[in-house]
Q: What sequence folds into this?
């Protein structure tokens, strides 16, 4: 056997391309033309084939590297029978002998422990970014380890910041940090490489033999992969022209290269709504252009769902002509909130229903629980009562626990009750979500709401803790005010605003009595909810808060 270099062949005019997948590893046996790795240009994904049959000894690139024609991407030992075809025709017996020798050699190689496992009970691992619960391109704001550090599993490696929260990415292993592959300011998504580390093994020899026994399975897997590829390519035959739009599927991953993502950002196109026509369903630039063209045509014809994009923007004057000004960049959270509020206001026909709830008896009961709360270490506020009352109202009037899919002309009816609570923080408004409110008691709701509110103020909320709400409560009672009109947090269809409670004279049929009245403002999406239902909802809330014993029924 002779070792030879695996080089990048002619790329059809492309200069540098990015490695997006490595389909083999050191020790794998390959045949001529078997795929070694997949690269992506601006236009398409291409598989680089093996120059011959043999065994891969080394791969010298990793996912994310840029390569060009002539670059060495790995090394392989060529099989003795992969030489000239003339020799094989003249000496068929010799060829068979060489084949059996090569097989024996491969067999003996496979029976040896894998190099990673045998070296002092340790192995090298490349740590990648785990699932970020829907977030993409989040910037690194802090690197928590240095090269050479010894760390434990779950120790924080880097800190990233999304639009809504700061998150730490933990280490999946215990071991020693090697090369750090990211720096502050880099933007990360699921699957990006963070760092290399040496992981200590327990019982290295046993694991090594297991790894060696798995090698034939790896080869079979790679062979079956190569057999499946023509079938997959046949299945992903070109769609009819113009089939570039699909309603987005929740949680679906978008397959597109950096150049395509950049183009989509520049044109304001949502990649989740574009059907890819490239290899393996990847989105290419032509798909983005076709989608934008079809959306413009639809808008000009007056079709589709209104998004408010046709409204002209407000052109600002030169404020410096009136006096001194100072400009500063919006925070990520402020910019995201501004966009969300504008989108909701433009797409949702808002109506607000007002009501006053008599909470005199509720407040007497709540204050009587002070001693019990101190024992439990939990402070009982009015919020748990509001959460419980809203959960009961949502169960009684399920038309408030829906979302509208206008593209499919469907109503999504939710069989769970999760409620968001708007929290005022130094960094802006954040909305953590309490799950299954209808299944929890007042003390449990008090503890969970306090914990989530503190996490919001400390920017420690996880993405999963801010998702899945059916309804939102926003309270300004601690600040003041008599009423306000909150904006619906679409795709929810209603939001409850709570103002400051005040003592008011209430006629009991004989005389005026001083009662503590709580102003409620229910904003709702008039496409899903009509005015009569909104009045019923606030009436139910008022009754439940007026006599909290009804919450037990």
A:
């Amino acid at each position: 056997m002779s070792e030879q270099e695996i080089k990048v062949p002619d790329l059809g005019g492309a200069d540098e391309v990015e490695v997006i997948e490595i389909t083999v590893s050191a020790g794998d046996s390959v045949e001529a033309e078997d795929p070694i790795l997949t690269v992506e240009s601006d236009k398409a994904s291409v598989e680089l084939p093996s120059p011959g049959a043999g065994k891969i000894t080394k791969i010298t690139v990793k996912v994310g590297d840029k390569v060009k024609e002539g670059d060495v991407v790995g090394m392989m030992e060529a099989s003795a029978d992969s030489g000239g075809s003339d020799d094989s025709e003249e000496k068929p017996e010799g060829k068979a002998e060489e084949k059996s020798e090569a097989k024996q050699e491969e067999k003996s190689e496979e029976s040896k422990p894998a190099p990673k496992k045998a070296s002092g009970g340790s192995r090298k691992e490349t740590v990648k970014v785990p699932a970020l619960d829907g977030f993409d391109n989040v910037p690194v704001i802090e690197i928590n380890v240095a090269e050479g550090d010894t760390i434990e599993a779950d120790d924080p490696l880097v800190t990233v910041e999304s639009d809504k929260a700061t998150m730490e990415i933990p280490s999946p292993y215990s071991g020693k940090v090697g090369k750090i592959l990211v720096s502050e300011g880099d933007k990360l998504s699921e699957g990006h490489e963070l760092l290399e580390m040496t992981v200590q093994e327990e019982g290295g020899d046993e694991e090594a033999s297991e790894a060696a026994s798995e090698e034939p399975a790896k080869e079979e897997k790679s062979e079956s992969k190569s057999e499946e590829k023509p079938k997959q390519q046949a299945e992903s035959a070109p769609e009819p022209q113009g089939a570039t739009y699909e309603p987005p599927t929740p949680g679906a991953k978008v397959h597109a290269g950096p150049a395509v993502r950049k183009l989509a950002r520049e044109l304001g196109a949502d990649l989740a709504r574009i059907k890819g026509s490239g290899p393996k369903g990847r989105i290419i630039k032509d798909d983005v252009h076709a989608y934008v063209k079809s959306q413009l045509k639809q808008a000009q014809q007056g079709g589709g769902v209104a998004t408010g994009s046709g409204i002209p923007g407000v052109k600002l004057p030169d404020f410096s002509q009136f006096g001194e000004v100072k400009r500063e960049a919006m925070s990520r959270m402020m910019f995201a909130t501004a966009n969300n509020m504008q989108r909701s206001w433009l797409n949702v026909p808002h109506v607000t229903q007002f009501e006053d709830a008599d909470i005199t008896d509720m407040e007497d009961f709540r204050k009587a629980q002070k001693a019990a709360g101190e024992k439990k270490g939990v402070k009982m506020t009015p919020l748990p009562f509001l959460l419980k009352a809203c959960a009961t109202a949502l169960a009684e009037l399920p038309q408030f626990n829906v979302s509208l899919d206008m593209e499919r002309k469907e109503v999504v009816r939710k069989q769970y009750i999760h409620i968001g609570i708007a929290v005022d923080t130094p960094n802006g408004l954040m909305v953590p979500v309490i799950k299954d409110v209808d299944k929890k008691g007042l003390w449990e709701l008090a503890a969970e709401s306090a914990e989530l509110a503190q996490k919001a103020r400390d920017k420690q909320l996880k993405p999963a803790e801010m998702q899945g709400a059916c309804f939102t409560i926003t309270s300004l009672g601690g600040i003041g005010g008599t009423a306000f009109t909150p904006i619906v947090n679409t795709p929810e269809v209603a939001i409850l605003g709570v103002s400051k409670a005040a003592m008011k004279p209430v006629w009991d049929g004989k005389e005026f009595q001083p009662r503590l009245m709580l102003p409620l403002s229910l904003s709702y999406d008039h496409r899903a909810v009509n005015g009569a239902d909104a009045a019923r909802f606030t009436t139910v809330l008022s009754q439940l808060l007026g006599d909290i014993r009804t919450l037990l029924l």
About this structure: The mean pLDDT is 80. Residues 433 and 467 are 6 Å apart (CA to CA). The domain at 2-116 is CATH 2.40.50.100 (OB fold (Dihydrolipoamide Acetyltransferase, E2P)). The first strand starts at residue 2 and ends at 7.
